[in-house]
Amino acid sequence: MTVVVVVVIVMEVVRLVVKVMAVMIVMVVVVVMMVVMMGKMVMVVVMMMVLVMVEMVKGI
Fold this sequence. Notes:
Blueprint: H1 2-59
Keywords: Membrane, Transmembrane, Transmembrane helix
Transmembrane segments: 20-53
C-alpha cells in the first residue's frame, strides 16, 4: 500500500513539474516572439526614417 501511495504522489509531482515546465517554455517562446516582432517593427521604422532623411537631403 505505502509503495503505491508513494508512486502516485511521485507521479502527481512529476505531472505538476511537467505542467509548470510547459507553461514556462510557452511563456519564454511568447516573449521571444514578441521581442522579435518588436525588433522587426523597429527595423522597419528605422528604415523608413532613413529613407525620409535621404529624400529630404535629396530635396535640399
